[in-house]
Amino acid sequence: MTAPRWDVADGPGALPCHLVDPEVFFAESPADVEAAKALCIGCPVQQACLDGALDRREPWGVWGGQLFIAGVVVARKRPRGRPRKHPVVEPYAPAAARQQGKEAAA
Ligand code: SF4
């Protein structure tokens, strides 16, 4: 996906964040956050927006194409919930087949 180019001559109302639902820039979903960051690409005031957000230590949201959490830029938004302590282990295939056979016989 290529982000559309925005022209300063279009005025502040034409900034990408002024043309979409502002909630996208404060989304919970990592996919929505990435979509908001993509909207900032090509914004004519992206660098000034980012500099301002850094100066203000914005507590939350996408500013200048970066995600801020607690005043600092973070690379990616983590999904909600506690991270797993252990990786998910798929059942061993023969064991899974035996289990399916037991269930089919019952
Ligand atoms: S860089 Fe700033 S002004 Fe431009 S679209 Fe993103 S949040 Fe809006």
TrEMBL record:
Residues 79-106 are annotated as: Disordered. Upon Fe-S cluster removal intramolecular disulfide bonds are formed. The Fe-S cluster can be nitrosylated by nitric oxide (NO). It holds the Pfam family Whib. Keywords: 4Fe-4S, Cytoplasm, Disulfide bond, DNA-binding, Iron, Iron-sulfur, Metal-binding, Transcription, Transcription regulation. GO terms for cellular component: cytoplasm. The keyword DNA-binding applies. The keyword RNA-binding does not apply. GO terms for biological process: cell redox homeostasis; negative regulation of DNA-templated transcription. It is found in: Cytoplasm. Residues 93-106 have a biased composition (Low complexity). Binds 1 [4Fe-4S] cluster per subunit. Following nitrosylation of the [4Fe-4S] cluster binds 1 [4Fe-8(NO)] cluster per subunit. InterPro entries: 4FE4S_WBL, HMGI/Y_DNA-bd_CS, Whib. Its cofactor is [4Fe-4S] cluster. It comes from the Bacteria. One of its GO terms (molecular function) is 4 iron, 4 sulfur cluster binding. [4Fe-4S] cluster binds at residues 17, 40, 43, 49. Residues 16-73 form the 4Fe-4S Wbl-type domain. Belongs to the WhiB family. Acts as a transcriptional regulator. Probably redox-responsive. The apo- but not holo-form probably binds DNA. This is Transcriptional regulator WhiB. It comes from Friedmanniella luteola. The gene is whiB.
